[in-house]
Amino acid sequence: MIAMVQITFRNKKFEVKENMTARDALKKIGIDPESVLISVNGKLVTDDVVLREGDEVKLVAVISGGSAIVC
Amino acid sequence: MRHHKLALCGEHYSEWFVNSTQRAIEKYKMFKPDANILVAVSGGKDSLALWDVLARLGYKADGLYIGLGIQGEIDYSDQSLACIRNFAQQNVPNAQLHVVDIAETYGKTIPEISRASTRGHGKPCSACGLTKRYVMNRLAAERGYDVLATGHNLDDEAAVLMQNTLHWQTGYLARQAPVLEASDGLAKKVKPFCRFYERETATYAVVRNIEYVYDECPHAVGNLTNFYKTLLNQLEAESPGAKLSFYVEFLKARQAGFFQAPADKSNLHACEVCGQPTTAPGRCAFCRMWNITAASGGALISPDAIAVRGDDAFDDVETRVAETVDVSGL
Ligand code: SF4
Ligand SMILES: [Zn+2]
């Protein structure tokens, strides 16, 4: 069996195979890497980090098209 | 290249971010160390990060929140104010937070006035933008702030730049700058984060444990700015640094005089009701939209009321316009 890594974004959960870079994982699940920050086990990481089984991966949305002051 | 900064630990990242902001403030001559600054806060990451950074740099910076009365499914406005109060209490306990609730002050929420007016074709953004600009200017002027600071980041600026360029909006291009000097009763406006990528301001907010509203205004979903941001992100992915150079090279061209504001634009009049600057004689667009007339007595704080009435009466009127909260007592 291939080990999987879970990724949480807002209230959604995604699964990708382990040993992928975060960047490839984002591509896989169709999320623009520029639009999120990646936290692995509670620490912000760059997108070249390789994801391992058991990692807790969370994405934080970056885009604010409607932060009420600037629009 | 900028990704290297993420490799810094949280503390060094935050130090780098704060120092870079100070460099931008100096580079674009935004304000002096003793300036009275009003930060427009929405509850989003950028504006809260900005307030945080200015306070950490030792500036005297107060906040202004405008309650738009936009709730949607997520109670957007309520959630925003809760985040701001919480932030202010913890991070800027010595500052003041002005809260202007639009429905309380002018009788309708933004979605309501938008439905009642002809502006914006069913979308509240036009009424909303007009109202926000008006309230920010007016509060800054009446409370004696030297400068109004907003949290626009590089992605915001690049998206607007792209939009203006695609339509060759030369007038807007001439005015798109990190600093807009005060003129004819309009407050000086600055954007200290204009060179930070959106992900950099988000990183700062996360590193500093700032709780902000993740959701955007429900009316922003699918708007043009988001569309251009997405396009620019695709460009950035192919060609790292593209957003920054698009914006910074534009600023240089602008500085070199390639985009000049039309000379006759300086002809502003005072609105006959509220006294705020307006391009055409008579009532300003704000007073027309809210149907504020001298006769109806609906001018909530007219210059006359301030000049003529006594202090107590003025305070009375004032509280309808801005509830100023001493943050330490929240
Ligand atoms: S997106 Fe929301 S906050 Fe922004 S202008 Fe439109 S209604 Fe106002
Ligand atoms: Zn007016």
Protein described:
The complex is a heterodimer of chains A (71) and B (330). With 71 residues, chain A is mostly beta strands. Chain A has one domain (4-61): Beta-grasp domain (Ubiquitin-like (UB roll)), CATH 3.10.20. Helix content of chain A is 11%, strand content 37%. Chain A has one helix spanning 22-29; strands spanning 4-9, 12-17, 36-40, 43-45, 56-61. The radius of gyration of chain A is 13 Å and the shape is elongated. The relative contact order of chain A is 0.26. Chain B is built from 15 helices and nine strands. Chain B has helices at 3-6, 10-27, 45-56, 76-91, 102-106, 110-116, 125-142, 154-166, 170-175, 198-207, 224-238, 242-255, 285-289, 303-308, 311-321, and strands at 36-40, 60-67, 96-101, 147-149, 179-180, 188-190, 269-270, 277-278, 323-326. In chain B, helix 2 (10-27) crosses helix 10 (198-207) and helix 3 (45-56) packs across helix 10. Chain B is globular and about 60 Å long. The model of chain B is unreliable at 298-323 (pLDDT under 50). Chain A binds chain B through residues 10, 32-35, 37, 39, 44-48, 60-71, and chain B through 3, 6-7, 10, 40-47, 66, 68, 70, 80, 125, 128-129, 132, 150-152, 155-156, 198-199, 202-203, 206-207, 213-214, 216-221, 223, 225-226, 229-230, 233-234, 236-237. Iron/sulfur cluster sits between chains B (70, 124-125, 128-129, 217, 219-220) and A (66, 68, 71).
